[in-house]
Amino acid sequence: MDFETTVFEKEYIELGGRREAIVRGGRHLFDRLPHALAGVGQIGVIGWGPQGSAQAQNLRDSLNGTVKVAVGLRSGSRSFEAARAAGFREEDGTLGEMFEVIAASDMVLLLISDAAQTDLHEKIFATLRPGTTLGLSHGFLLGYLADRNETFPAEVDVVGVCPKGMGASVRALYLQGAEVNGAGINASFAVHQDVTGHAVDRALAWSVALGAPYTFQTTLRSEYLSDLTGERAILAAGVHGVVESLFRRYRENGMRDEEAFRLSAESVTGPISKIISRDGLRGLYERLSEDDRSVFAQAYAAAYPVGLELTHEIYDEVESGNEIRSVVLAGKRLGRFPMGKIDQSTMWQVGQKVRGNRAESEIPLSPFTAGIYCGVLMAQVDTFLAKGHPYSEIANESVIEAVDSLNPYMHARGIAYLVDNCSTTARLGARKWASRFDYLLTQLAYPAMDQGAAAIDLAPFTAFEDHVIHDILRVCAEMRPPVDIFVE
């Protein structure tokens, strides 16, 4: 997999013996954006959710009037006021009804919800002019179309640019980038259809204009398979199920609620994530004492089979279309059966108290918690390896997005807060799959630990020690933005 660009410098990195092409971003490239976007008079950003609002503002600021950026919203949307407050106006044509903006735009970035994309895609496709570049920041719509044996319109480009962080961080780190060189959220890009012959440069211009320090290549299909699987595994549902099972286990072993929370959720989103972010998975293990390494190894080996079984099942459900169909069907039920929140249960109420009195230096680095969490995480890595995903995508969707984006956000706000406030697609996945991780860890992994070392096959941990992911993360760490994720 490779690409050609006539505007930006393509570089190559070596990841675990494989060569991948990337583009390095930076504000010094902003003057190249009009050339990369030749033939684009207007970019229409459709939607004002977290990604839509962030991307519209970043694009407007980076292009600085050389290409018009217009926001398109549904008639009567409450987001009109928020868009006006950010400087978009009906009077100058930078704000309008979504289908009018789509019809007037040469590049349309479709950043409305997955449910809205599936509901409105036929009308959206009919409104696109031939030669338009359709941009997506998530491949859900491709999966939906494939399941229905449908395709994108043949006369338009289809590209993806997928920031590896939440919308608030995409905007906040872009603003920090004015003062801190390299601040921003890395992104992946994909070209699914190139009708105009300019799709690569337009996609890369989009990513650079968002402030991405580095842009990695993938395919739209690979992106949605890894993204949907990842949020149903270690990125959201998996971490949710892991920490709930650990919290309950620690309480059953006689710990006070507050200490059980520190050893489970706080340990994962605090020191475990911070060490992995800076030093990698092997660096986390090496940070432990000799005795703690033994605990880590046994916990890792006990949790890994659970994670591998479930992540393969999730991947199969996504790839077959079952998971996408379940999201669409659930969306139709939400009017009658709205999703409840999890933040009123005992664990998450305890978490509010713990965060309110938090002393970072007192959060324990639990080798047992670290082993369980890393065992499930590495199961996702190995699932993606088995399915042939690019190494950079495996690292981003399994490790980097967790420890550099989502876990820090959960550390600040709470895991329950993220589960209750992420996208509808991710919330549905968290509700559906977290309990599976919880139950199987409780039913299989922890009983094995209780039976002693003789009951645990350490082969998964032996494979961990020399795993290719360590070299991949070492290279990716060199491309880590110099500032941590922004959390309001």
Automatic annotation (TrEMBL):
Positions of Mg(2+) 2 binding: D227
Annotated Pfam families: KARI_C, KARI_N
Keyword check for Metal-binding: yes
Pathway of action: Amino-acid biosynthesis; L-isoleucine biosynthesis; L-isoleucine from 2-oxobutanoate: step 2/4; Amino-acid biosynthesis; L-valine biosynthesis; L-valine from pyruvate: step 2/4
Residues binding Mg(2+) 1: D227, E231
KARI C-terminal knotted domain span: 219-361
Cofactor: Mg(2+)
Residue stretches making up the KARI N-terminal Rossmann domain: 23-218
Keyword Chloroplast: no
InterPro entries the UniProt entry points to: 6-PGluconate_DH-like_C_sf, 6PGD_dom2, KARI, KARI_C, KARI_N, NAD(P)-bd_dom_sf
Entries under PROSITE patterns matching the protein: KARI_C (PS51851), KARI_N (PS51850)
UniProt xrefs under SUPFAM superfamilies: 6-phosphogluconate dehydrogenase C-terminal domain-like, NAD(P)-binding Rossmann-fold domains
Alphabetically ordered keywords of this record: Amino-acid biosynthesis, Branched-chain amino acid biosynthesis, Magnesium, Metal-binding, Oxidoreductase
Protein family per UniProt: Belongs to the ketol-acid reductoisomerase family.
PANTHER family in the cross-refs: KETOL-ACID REDUCTOISOMERASE, MITOCHONDRIAL
Name of the protein described by the UniProt record: Acetohydroxy-acid isomeroreductase
